[in-house]
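Lab manual, section 2.4: Encoding a predicted structure.

Procedure: take the sequence of the chain (348 residues), apply the prediction step described in section 2.3, and record the output as structure tokens. A sample record is shown.
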Amino acid sequence: MDPVAALNEIAFWLERERAATFKVQAFRKAAAAISPVPPEEVAERARNGRLKSMKGIGDRTYQVIRQAVEGEVPDYLADLREKGARPLASAGASIRDALRGDLHSHSEWSDGGSPIELMVAAAGVLGREYLALTDHSPNLTIANGLSAERLLQQLDVVDAINDGIRTAVDDARAANPVRLLAGIEVDILESGDLDQEPELLDRLDIVVASVHSKLRADSRTMTRRMLGGIQDPHTNILGHCTGRLVEGSRGTRPPSDFDAKDVFAACAEHNVAVEINSRPERQDPPDALIQLALEAGCLFSIDSDAHAPGQLDFLQYGAERAERNGVPADRIITTWPVERLLEWAGAR
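Recorded output:
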């Protein structure tokens, strides 16, 4: 077994089960350390023990590499695969099976932890047909938001990855080709404007608009701000609309106060999908607001908001909540074929 693939797969399963970051990074760093080394040399160093002295290789990662180069599935990986065979969510299978893509994900270009290529590869393993890369916009400096110049550079990377996927498909080497969509999670500023140049937003496939600051503003202020973002013709999806946190390492945070009826009426009027954010610590919107959005006639987007490859499977949690709230599959844009999705997004 390829030891780099084994190490990255272990990291994937650990991310999926929400293991501690340091534990995940041990395997990601080990994979990065041996990746430039010729496979024959990795195998020789593993067999004679010299690999142990290599920076980034610990006892556990050495054991994984040693078993992999001997042609075995490492014991640690086999155990994680067995655990991973069980679904993350106990319900939502009908919606989960209908999902084709994911329109909210982050890479190491902003506050994600992995290269874009690893995110795309993981989406392929999970059977996704498309994945939108939506790194943050400039205003969110704490998340290394992309300036206009960096976003332009990223668009070139997205094109190159899609060109490579097309070539692999033509050569019949790609079992699960994933269309990578150019996107952004753009801040809705206090003024209601979007935090990126309109000319650049014009070039993107998907725009997720979210509020990340001043979350405790009064209802009138927050409603006006959100309506500004929804009414901008570039916006396709309203991201994690309440901003709440219900668990996790960052602690908890109450939902923002806004006029949900006005906000969801605007989403329906302007053809903006309401995101069902699948992150366990967000579970956003709450069930009561999903019901309000349903009554308003809104579309929905079940997204992972993944910051690491294994988190892409968090869609299971969003599917469970959508099914529990009676959201019809055809009103979930991430169940649509990519051609229909892009036609809808471009109509904005």
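Check your result against the sample. The domain at 3-84 is CATH 1.10.150 (DNA polymerase; domain 1).
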